[in-house]
# Entry
Amino acid sequence: MWKYDPKSTNADEFINHEEILETLAYADAHKNDRPLLKEILEKAKARKGLSHRDASVLLASEDEEINEEIFRLAKQIKQDFYGNRIVLFAPLYLSNYCVNGCTYCPYHAVNRHMPRKKLTQEEVRREVIALQDMGHKRLAIESGEDPVNNPIEYILECVNTIYGIHHKNGAIRRVNVNIAATTVENYHKLKEAGIGTYILFQETYHKESYLQLHPTGPKHDYNYHTEAMDRAMQGGIDDVGCGVLFGLDKYRYEFAGLLMHAEHLEAVFGVGPHTISVPRLRDADDIDSSAFKNGIDDDTFAKIVACIRIAVPYTGMIVSTRENQKTREKVLGLGISQISGGSRTSVGGYVEPEPEDMKSEQFDVMDNRTLDEVICWLMKLGYVPSFCTACYREGRTGDRFMSLCKSGQIQNCCHPNALMTLKEYLVDYAGKETKEVGDALIQAELKNIPKEQVRKIVIENLSKIETGQRDFRF
Ligand code: SAM
# Structure
């Protein structure tokens, strides 16, 4: 007899295989059931989210009219909760030493020809200065899993080094961490080191596939991996970032699993994931993505993004440079709130390009534009690029952030900060065209700050930034 229990601490019970199969069967049975689809959309309009079952029915919908309404609602929710702001970040690869055997990742242990690299603290410094000189304020550090080469002490040392670097007006104000599942004690240490979000992709929620895709190494343990977010929360990290690697298993299975994971975290800890990432499998070194049979097309990808936006309106959504400009443009309006820009997925790729025979990239980047080009592009599309990290630094994480978000107040609080951090970027790092586009955008956006008093403070701060008299931090 199977058991599904969102409050259980056992991965097999909170991500229950049979419950997912029943959900998918239910979604299939109702994919053309217009009255039910409409009823679910009505529920979604309350902006309180949807259960994995209801959201799975929307994802399965074959009704054109309903599908159009799904996209419309996703856009509206995105606008209501996040406005036109897009937060920017960059990944920083620390080490590609890895003891796991993930069949889709070129860092797998049996890849003998890929050079293994691990940044020294001096190299971390140089990479971070290069990132600061681009204008980045928020990083996601990435590393393979190797207890000997990349122990937790190494990761902590890197976090400490990164926060300590202040080059010109540069500073990394939030370091998010994407490292393998670890112990409560180690999560506690990461929290103490001042990390932002702990990110861990589930890769796939399908246990049988998971075991095959991760044949060797500590990552083979599905339950240990799936229960990692619980341990992170027990260790005091209240911002966690979930995600699956689309292409490994059937997307509808993954979608239901992802939402069940969010429901579980909410049920046990009172706070769902801070972000959800939507990576798609890409070619990489010895990895041929076409050998994986569950790849999804761009339309399906867009529908997944829209359905996630509707199902968990208060959870940020991230798209990386695994997607090209065109796809990124499409999903920005459907619910994405954070993107990476100017990214390198190699260990040490920011200071100078790697020689051909020394490549350590984790996957092929599909959007190769510079950060400045990305910023300019976003603004021309009507978005306000934001480098703000104020919530995190003022302790508005976890449930405090969620309640801000759920009450719809996030816009009033975030819009002024976005404009001021954009101004910092324009003054310190932008090219000529970006500065012109940006200054005009800020002027126009000032009108959208409802409170006169707040607007006055913002205008004062903008002029301080322009004249080099900053006495505040975001
Ligand atoms: N080692 C950590 C772990 O096991 O979770 C950190 C992960 S890795 C640096 C970041 C993510 O890249 C992985 O979780 C995986 O989803 C993704 N990834 C791996 N191979 C990929 C590929 N070929 N294409 C796209 N993404 C890939």
DSSP finds 20 helices and nine strands in the chain. The pocket of S-adenosylmethionine is lined by residues 104-105, 142, 144-145, 178-180, 200-201, 203, 219, 245, 279, 281-282, 284, 287, 322, 362-363 (CB under 6 Å). Residues 64-82 form the longest helix (19 residues).
